[in-house]
Design goal:
The protein is mostly beta strands. The chain is built from no helices and 13 strands.
């Protein structure tokens, strides 16, 4: 959860994600770099700054919404937009589309972006109703000199 605006990102098992933040004046530029896997983002309106999700295939600019991203480095990205607006840019072709509520966008390695009505059964399951607390959480932190530290949080 981001402390400045209470936006939240949920990771599914097996997801590779780098969280980046940069101060820009009195705002905060936030970026999630996802290499593979699935995330659900619940992003509140950004008062100052911007929020983006970047994969090897696409960049999603978020204004305030709830959506899923599924990234497969061999195929591309699938975006399930639940509410609000998400701008999707395919990095191969430069094509840009606006994804509105209840639309699914598929950004392919060929440079094509397809948009369709969302089929509810295809959306990943948000497992909040069955909260399972992990026994160990590892967070890799990188400093400006690329030195890495690992923060390990253990649960009972």
């Amino acid at each position: 959860m981001y402390l400045d605006d209470k936006s939240m990102v949920k990771l599914k098992s097996g997801t590779s994600l780098i969280i980046r933040g940069e101060r820009t004046g009195d705002g905060l530029k936030k970026n999630l770099d996802i290499n593979n896997g699935s995330i659900k983002s619940i992003i509140n309106k950004q008062k100052k700054g911007e929020f983006t999700v970047t994969s090897p295939t696409s960049v999603a600019s978020v204004k305030g919404t709830s959506f899923w991203v599924i990234t497969d480095p061999d195929q591309g990205d699938t975006f399930f937009n639940e509410e609000g607006l998400v701008e999707i840019k395919n990095l191969i072709s430069g094509e840009i589309i606006d994804l509105i509520a209840n639309q699914t966008g598929v950004s392919l390695l060929t440079g094509i972006i397809n948009v369709s009505q969302t089929i509810q059964s295809e959306i990943p399951i948000d497992e909040d109703s069955e909260i399972k607390i992990p026994k160990e959480l590892k967070i890799i932190l990188s400093g400006p000199d690329q030195e890495q530290k690992i923060l390990i949080i253990k649960y009972n």
